């Protein structure tokens, strides 16, 4: 599956970009519909190839989890690939009693593990029994049946991803297989069976170990977020903390699914070679009678203004590196547009300001990046990521970056470099939307965060950003009291 976790927003940085020459046509080509049950449908006919990119997105991600649910959105994404009452099983009626026994035994084992004075013999007995039951259960499971059916029918890229802000399920398939897609995906929503839960929980535990616990970049990023955000749930990892994963249970999974996977929180985006009216009829037939559900409640935890610099050092056996993060507003705040342009000027390409200064001229770092994280539905961070050259201290790199930020105030941005950044941003977007899947992804993300129409007016807003706007956001936001400095390396800070 396609998981982003700690680098999720590095990918999304290419999403929050202007539409350029196609802005006007998007407003006419994207057909938006709202079904009676609240389901949002975005349809874009594009007859360049006989294929369709299909995205189903939910306005729910890690940001919507409470302290009892951390990591559940991501775990649920895993479980929704395990089949339904008709797919993924040889005989669900015969399988169901075994599933119930597995759940009861696993829950009993989990409960005993949490007891400080647990009987070791009883623990071993339950582990053995659970292993036996799961071995028996394999006889009833048809592994990866979703993937097999889609592949046999010409589908590619069957995947999913969970971010802070959303969860999406995607596939690219021949245009004449749209009804098959609708039948499979609506069945996943109506009749999902969360089989192989305990083995999949172990898979997620290992995924965390590989992506975070033994990865210096993942470890640094996770600690930076937990330090920069003290109240807002953006501070928590998408995959969950280690103890969260150990505490996952089937009742928690089912409750999250029931609460949030409903049409009022759902967006279907189709881009490709289809007939609009016939396709809308298919969607209404297969998804239109789903119960509307209840909207995901807005996150009410508000991050208070930061009143002083925060620092954290991670002792890790790896090459030293650092991240410096500043709190900033998100869209539709007008300063968000200025930050997009500022990030492009500072770090996009080998001719950018920071690359030329820190990598080429001063030779202090081997890599420098600027990106928005960790989500965009709520106020977020502008993050500077720096990897020092061998022999260069983190202190030297930090001072050099501070000098560059001060230079932004003393040397006004030229029209030439601002125009160059705008062109680079436009080119990045155009590359992203050349494919059906790229356009479907971007429309889905914007619709979750704000509204896909934001794309239509974005270029005008970006073009309206002036040099004094960039200097104002540097003065307002990029100062010591508003920043978190996170470093990683062997030994002390």
From TrEMBL:
Organism: Pelovirga terrestris
Occurrences of domain Peptidase M16 N-terminal (ranges): 41-109, 150-240
GO terms for MF: metal ion binding; metalloendopeptidase activity
Cofactor: Zn(2+)
InterPro entries associated with the record: Metalloenz_LuxS/M16, MPP/UQCRC_Complex, Pept_M16_N, Pept_M16_Zn_BS, Peptidase_M16_C
Family: Belongs to the peptidase M16 family.
Top-level taxon in the UniProt lineage: Bacteria
Gene3D superfamilies reported for this sequence: Metalloenzyme, LuxS/M16 peptidase-like
Transmembrane regions: none
GO biological process, any: proteolysis
Domain Peptidase M16 C-terminal: 248-424
This protein's name: Insulinase family protein
